[in-house]
């Protein structure tokens, strides 16, 4: 089967063959049975219209979702599908509970109402994808990759809209971060191809919003090395060796040696997802990954909450297939194997194809992320050779510098100052301002006028 990352992508005849199979093997509950009155620990004053459950894709596969409706005017606001990256990280565990959803898990196992949630602007749909991730289940171990993930996500959307028909034809957006730099454009490509020749498509895709995305390692890697060196993470010698050897062959011995030197002897226990974040109290490597501004680690508390039986029951989880060692990001032994070669594939041809369709496409990047640095993303965009419509300028939030922006023909890049890999977690207020601008496709706020002396 042709790779999704090619410029041709999937074609409609393929899905005309697949969809009857999905229809024949699917069994879906109605929306009423998917409704959640309240989650364990949910504050009494934090009511939200929410639904969760499974959509069966095949006899062996069913995908788990959580729908959080907009806090006001839900029937008129758009629908946003959020996909977390990895590959293999739960959109419920990451995107919903740690970034843009209405609740945050407290250390005592209770939920707090998040002061800033994207459901003020849109209906939020979180999907655990691919299979084996989070609460999405299958009884058999199978190989996963970009093609199967895009195919399954498309099938999910079509079937999910039968359960929630009020969202048919609604303005629809795709969002995600990190490896969702693959998921989001590839799913968008499938949707666009499926909508060809349809005047009023059921999946009414309007745009994409991708944060710190993995798009093309080959053109972007020099930006990664630049970030390491500019932030003092590696020596001059290692930087020069990375430029010398890794630009020629990423699998070469010289490149591998440079990476080993950086990791073993130079970088130390730095938080790759936010190089300026402080560790949690116990100073473990696990806790170094994510630390919220108020002093406790969201990852550990969220994972503990989602492992609870009462939480899973309220979420309508099929506990038969959820392992006791449930994790927010599934490892290969936890029912997920992902084709490693897909991680090296460039998604730029897909992105260029989508730009040509006129879809609204925004990419945002936290400036303190070492996993997929801003410098890497800027090099990826440069490889697209797009015409600059509005050159790099600072944008402001509450009269303070919040980052920078550049608008290209068909694409907008937003840099968020001082944010790590998960921008909505590290800079929630700035991220919401960006999201509002994205939905209206309006430029970010420019600097206030200079005061005359």
TrEMBL record:
Entry similarity comment: Belongs to the peptidase S10 family.
The enzyme's E.C. designation: 3.4.16.-
Swiss-Prot/TrEMBL keywords: Carboxypeptidase, Glycoprotein, Hydrolase, Protease, Secreted, Signal
Native organism: Rhodamnia argentea
GO molecular function, one term: serine-type carboxypeptidase activity
Pfam families recorded: Peptidase_S10
Major enzyme class: hydrolase
Chain's gene name: LOC115726422
Name by which UniProt lists this protein: Carboxypeptidase
